[in-house]
Specification:
about 230 residues; alpha/beta; Rossmann fold; four-stranded parallel β-sheet; two-stranded antiparallel sheet; 9 helices; 6 strands; disordered N terminus
């Protein structure tokens, strides 16, 4: 999840395929190749869209063994797990716990006053090119998404892995510690030296996720009968 051409997820999907696990990557509405408008918040809607994808493949008789998301996609898979309890493995790669943070860096100072005045803020890149529009409604959606409550609502039967780079320049690594503190059945791995894109650490990330999704079988004790 989170841009199907995201190299992180492309590499992981290839590794899963080599391990005999089918992987399906897709873009949420307004992301990558999907139609529609990009929404700054929209977390609940993305969890509902994910529900539609899971339901479709379940109807096609696929066994959904895990959901994986990077960045905002990490938040989507966690929110899904808190709302629906039918997938028992979740991998959150660099999701943001404190959704109220990181906004000023994207929208600029006094964003609340400006968006109340104009009803929207247009986000542009460093070259001044328009990227997307943030409406007051989408900003409220982000600020009203309760990550603490949703984290605590994930069932103990759901295994969750959070992977985060220690040098993440987009989402601070302390957010990963917050997920670890509040999700009932949680494993945490901080990749030392990795940024938000895991540049130079792609193989380590892929191995961590793959081992969590499809654990290697333990060697049988010589004292136990072999079946």
């Amino acid at each position: 999840l989170q841009r199907q051409d995201d190299s992180i997820l492309v590499d992981l999907a290839a590794a899963l395929a080599s391990a005999g696990v089918n992987a399906f990557r897709f873009d949420f509405a307004g992301n990558g190749e999907s139609e529609g408008l990009f929404q700054y918040g929209n977390y609940r809607k993305e969890a509902d869209d994910l529900r539609s994808v899971v339901s479709y493949f379940s109807e096609q008789k696929y066994d959904i063994i895990a959901l994986v998301g990077h960045s905002k996609g990490g938040n989507a898979v966690l929110l899904y797990a808190s709302m629906y309890h039918d997938v028992t493995v979740i991998v959150n790669i660099s999701g943001r716990f404190a959704l109220e943070e990181g906004i000023e860096g994207r929208l600029g100072k006094n964003f609340l006053q400006r968006i109340k005045k104009d009803g929207y803020i247009d986000v542009r890149n460093k070259k001044g090119k328009f990227e997307y529009r943030v409406t007051e409604e989408s900003l409220r959606d982000r600020l009203s998404t309760d990550t603490l409550l949703s984290s605590r609502s994930i069932s103990k039967g759901c295994r969750v892995l959070t992977v985060h780079g220690s040098e993440d320049e987009t989402v601070p690594a302390r957010d990963a510690l917050m997920f670890a503190a509040h999700i009932p059945n949680h494993d945490l791995h901080i990749v030392v030296g990795a940024n938000h894109r895991y540049t130079g650490h792609e193989q380590e990330l892929t191995s961590l996720a793959l081992d969590f999704i499809k654990p290697r079988p333990r060697k049988s004790s010589s004292l136990r009968p072999k079946l």
